[in-house]
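Thread: Modeling a multi-component assembly for a lab meeting

Hi all, long-time lurker, first post. My supervisor asked me to bring a structural picture of a complex we are working on to next week's group meeting, and I have zero experience with this. I have the sequence lines for every component (476 residues in total). Could someone generate the structure of the whole assembly? Inputs are pasted exactly as I received them:
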Amino acid sequence: MTVPMIAMRAVGKSFGAHQVLRGVDLDVAPSEVVCLIGPSGSGKSTLLRCVNFLEPYDEGEVRIAGELIGYDLDSEGERRPMAPSRLRAMRREIGMVFQHFNLWPHMTALENVSEPLRRVRGLPKGEATDRAAAMLRRVGLADKAGAHPLRLSGGQQQRVAIARALAMQPRLMLFDEPTSALDPELVGEVLEVMRALAAEGMTMLIVTHEMGFAAHVASRIAFIDGGRILESGPPRRVFHESAEPRVRQFLQTYHDRNAF
Amino acid sequence: MRFSVFSHSFGYLAHAAGVTLALSLAGIALGFVIGMAVCVARLSGKPWPERLGAAYVSVFRGVPLLVLLLFIYYFLATVGLDVPALVAAIGGLSLSSGAYQAEILRGALNAVPRGQGEAAVALGYGAVDRWRRILLPQAVRISVPPLINEFILLIKASSLVSVVGIAELTRVSMNIASMTYRPLEAYLAGGFFYLVINLTLAGLGSLAERRLARGA
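Re: Modeling a multi-component assembly
Sure thing. I ran the full set together rather than chain by chain. Output:
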């Protein structure tokens, strides 16, 4: 069996007295696309953010291609924070796309993509610019290279953000509600880019409320509520055959809200 | 109104305005370096730098500049440190301004959305590049208007350095007033030079604001 790209074991996380994640187990195999769904506040974004240690988890293990992220184990098996340089090296391999894009407003679209290539990958300026331009072409924004983020639509901004992450040539991509902040008519263009990425075999872990997208693109759906994965399996099973009452209730509410 | 006072004193006042400007610019520039360092210390997330930064702001914002200047000039001399007047003046101005600039920059950094730094962290940025390339450029842009404010205040406050014997604009205006017995003309002329300096600074500030805002 191949080593999972992401392997989470008994992951727990608390904010003060509030326990957000409770013993979560989740594997994502190479080239697999896993969608995390669930109600707001269920812990799905927190779980996603534990994968690249933007959110330090308190319990359990998160391994990226077999390597524990965020902590080192000493000879007695005690955990201590990982050396910052090694954590940075691991994060370089994990692309992340945020709900609010988080493009840097003081740089053009092209600079947003080329800047990390220069600072983090250490590419010379010309090479970084070329690769950035190629990435913008790939997300259909070659003509927006010189535009500043605030001059772009939400959908365009999110595509630049995807290009920025992809330019780093990550081994996997995390998406944290990538379309939740978009006007409804701009959602499609972002999902289209993500669909193409999935078709190319990128490993993806996606927090989303786009059930249609999840049903068509995901290899697996994980339903989270109260910090636990209550159901996990192929989209068909989770969406249509789940016996878990919370899952059925959640999907029912979703259908009711989207029916008109 | 005797207009000959203006023409006779113009050269002296222009020279004194140069002194004021040079002192203030030195104070502003060193104050910016201090302010940046103190601000980074205060936001470092490490207890000791945070405490030291907070203590710095409390002390140098809490003590009047006049007292600070006199302290630097006289007290240090009594413990055997003979500080030249110019060093005491620039030292006092920059130490004081540094405290204010630190707070301006801190406020601006807090106004940069959290996601900006997070995006850099997720991409594998180290702390230095994250600050230098992502956070500070945005904070500086936000802080241009309050910084210009602070610079103008500093230029006006630089009149206090006359207490350590430096012939800057206010002191020279006073001298002209007492020599000519025409205080009205002398201070009118002095005030005019302050106004020119500060309007120029404000103009440069708007220019910087516009340039930094391009595209944003």
